[in-house]
Amino acid sequence: MERIHPVILSGGSGTRLWPESRSHYPKQLLPLISDQSMLQETAQRVTGQRVSGAGPKFSDPIIISNDTHRFIIAAQMEEMGITSDVHILEPFGRGTAPAAIVAAIHIAFSDPDGLMLLLSADHHIPELDKFHDAIDIASKAAAEGYLTTFGIEPTGPETGFGYIKSGHETKVIGAFGVDRFVEKPDKANAEKMIAAGRHYWNGGIFLFPVSGLLLQAEKHCPEILAACRLSYDNANRDLDFLRLDNKSFEICPSDSIDYAIMEKTDRAAVVPSSFGWSDIGSWSALWDVGAKDQDDNVLVGDVIAIDTRSSLIKAENLLVTALGVSDLIVVQTRDAVLIADKTKVQDVKKIVDRLKEADRPEHELHKRVYRPWGYYEGLDEGVSHQVKHICVNPGASLSLQYHHKRAEHWIVVKGTAEVVVGEKQKTLGENESVYIPIEAKHRLANAGKDPLHLIEVQTGAYLGEDDIVRLEDVYGRLEDK
Fold it and tell me: Which of 26, 78, 195, 202 is most buried, by CB atoms within 10 Å?
């Protein structure tokens, strides 16, 4: 069997899962269903050999994301012991078609006859054996030259998904030609399609022959192919990342793989599948797949619910109580609370739009902000002061930097800190502190084996994150903030 190269797309923002999912830390990076993030669950599904030992083998995954999430993704993959073939950084979001084509261009250099499994990082697939069985069928169809998609057996007249109607049988048992793709229907048409049979949800998972995809791209979307080739040829290596060329990728047309190729090609095939798929596109979808109590509630965190039914209530760091309510979504984070009717959760993105219009940070940032060295979390702020909790991972260090408008005090709470202030170097233990004057060069590092925790007190006329001048940085962020 041909090798299968998994390509994991991790570029979404998941606005309908606000306030947990935010643009700087979206849903695919969150542990929404288990103690692993959705990205980690996705990567585990397609790494190594199948559990049964039969069928096609998976190569190391290719990950495609934006620049903002690169270090979070790298840390999550390292935590799972998963090595990616390459982590490609898109300078701009251009849809799934350019992402798929860039991946195919990359794979073609080493394995032009290989197969490529394209999947999103934010899907929930609980029935792994059935998923791998469907991949077996799709890989045989792809080996015959078909651009294959997975049609999800519908469990109801869902109006939030597109549909695929299957057509003629192929010579691969379990794979059918695609008769047509159907846009998201209204409920009446969804009911008609389900009653008619041979209609499946379009789950957005594909298995392509690499050479076949590139041939179809040349035929149906040559402008996208040309821009992707140029951007890949002019890409730059940055640590463990491959940065596509900004200039050539910026002119790349934006399109989905469905519109650009699948709806135009005569080589499309569909494998009807039933592996419990969900795109976890809303809080109601999380209620659907969550573990429910005797009153059909999904309760997560410190929650007390009395005379409450069919609700999802999630608490991050406070006690949340509910009394005499039903069909609600209640989500508490450190800086926001969402209360919504379960039937209105598709409109949560309207709240995000309102936050953007008001230029409020809650649409993109959590109180806890992750960096490649660890994270910081705001504890208190006033007119001329700000207090943060900083955690530095073992072996990690912040950049050598200075600030024009603020001074800082560091107090070590746990661990040992290696500190540079000006020309002096010192080691600080627990309950020891250091003062960093305005414009003094400084660096913080954790040379220990355990996380380093400290409290940072900032004072000054301006305390924004853009008042950082980096002089040296092991993470290549001299242009970043």
Answer: 26
State the residue for tokens 């903002």. 68
Residue 22: name the closest of 327, 330, 331, 467 by CA: 331
- One-character DSSP codes across 161-206: S-EEEEEEE-SSTT-EEEEEEEPPP-HHHHHHHHHHSSEEEEEEEE
Residue indicated by tokens 């109006």:
159
How far is CA 464 from its chain centroid?
27
103 token code pair:
């991946």
Name the burial class of residue 291, with classes exposed (0-12), middle (13-18) and buried (19+) by CB atoms within 10 angstroms of its CB: exposed
- pLDDT tens column, 239-248: 789 999 999 9
Residue type, 380: D
Distance of CA 101 to the CA centre of its chain: 19
Task: Residue count of the chain, please give it.
Answer: 481
Q: Measured between alpha carbons, how far apart are the two ends of the chain, in Å? A: 47
pLDDT for residue 28 is more than 60: yes
Which strand (E) or helix (H) includes residue 215? Answer: helix 210-220
326 DSSP assignment = B
Residue 228 phi/psi, 5° resolution? -65, -40
- Bridge partners of residue 119, in order along the sequence: 8
Q: Which helix (H) or strand (E) holds 134?
A: helix 128-143
CB-based burial label for 343 (10 Å; 0-12, 13-18, 19+): exposed
Residues 6+ apart with CB under 8 A from 160: 184, 281, 346
HSE (side-chain half, CA atoms, 13 Å) at 133: 10
- Indicate the burial class of 88 (C-beta count within 10 angstroms; 0-12, 13-18, 19 or more): buried
pTM of the model: 0.91
Please tell me the distance from the alpha carbon of residue 336 to that of residue 422, in angstroms, as a whole number: 39
Q: Residues 121-132: pLDDT tens digits?
A: 999 999 999 999
The two counts, helices (H) then strands (E), for the chain are: 11, 28
Rounded CA separation 268/266 (Å): 6
